[in-house]
Amino acid sequence: MLAGPRQPAPLRRIITAHDSTSGRAIFSNAIGEQVSFTGFPVPPGKPTTSDYALVYNTSTFPVQGLSPPTSATPESKANLDIKHYHSQLLDPSPLNPPNGTSCTIIEVPPGSEVPMHRTATLDYGVVIDGTTELILDSGEKKLLKKGDVFVQRGTAHSWRNMAEKNDISGVLRVFFVFQPIDQVRLEGGKVIGQDLNLSLRQT
């Protein structure tokens, strides 16, 4: 289910590859350039308030299988990252596989908020368009504007769209790279992990 009546337009994503003989860079046509948006599942099972596009993801670190098919690299071992990503598009998740990374674009419509949640990831983020209030479960807040960069280290947070109407119709757009992390441990050995339902337990 998409956020409200708004249907985000697909974005364009370009993938490069290698010419199997010269090694020169070429553009890959293995996957179409258009990437569609779908509802961001936070909290799961509830109506979505934002949308995301899975721009790319990987399942290994370092990334393996970037060689083109040649006599030295059979087709079954070639371009493994592209094949993995292509399979992920059948049932996309905005988050990364256990040993990989995900590149995701999130759009939040005017006046909307992504509910409080925590992912077991380290996130690099850049505000592409609009303005957002990043809210932590401690109550601390920061206003982030277009071009601002943030790093989230497995912490609970929510996003509130504070964009002006004259800024791409008030849409907030954020670029993320999600990466796997070790468990976060607190005093006494308490572990805090992923929780996409934090907003349902807030009082």
What value does the average pLDDT take?
Answer: 93
Say what the CATH topology of one domain is: Jelly Rolls
Termini Cα gap: 26 Å
The helix-strand sequence is: EEEEEEHEEEEEEEEEEH
- Please compute the radius of gyration using only Cα atoms: 19 Å
- Low-confidence segments, ≥5 residues, pLDDT <50? none
What do we call the CATH homologous superfamily of one domain?
Jelly Rolls
CATH architecture of one domain: Sandwich
Strand content range: 35-45%
Shape: globular
Please bin the fraction of helical residues. under 10%
Main sheet summary: 6 strands, antiparallel
What is the highest CATH level, the class of one domain?
Mainly Beta
Secondary-structure content class: mainly beta
Strand order of the largest sheet: 5-6-7-14-9-12
Count the E strands.
16
Pfam families: Cupin_2
InterPro entries: Cupin_2, OryJ/VirC-like, RmlC-like_jellyroll, RmlC_Cupin_sf
Protein name: Cupin type-2 domain-containing protein
Topology:
Elements (H helix, E strand, L loop, with lengths): L10 E2 L3 E3 L6 E3 L6 E2 L2 E2 L11 E7 L22 H9 L13 E7 L4 E5 L3 E9 L1 E6 L4 E5 L3 E5 L3 E5 L10 E9 L3 E2 L5 E2 L5 H4 L2
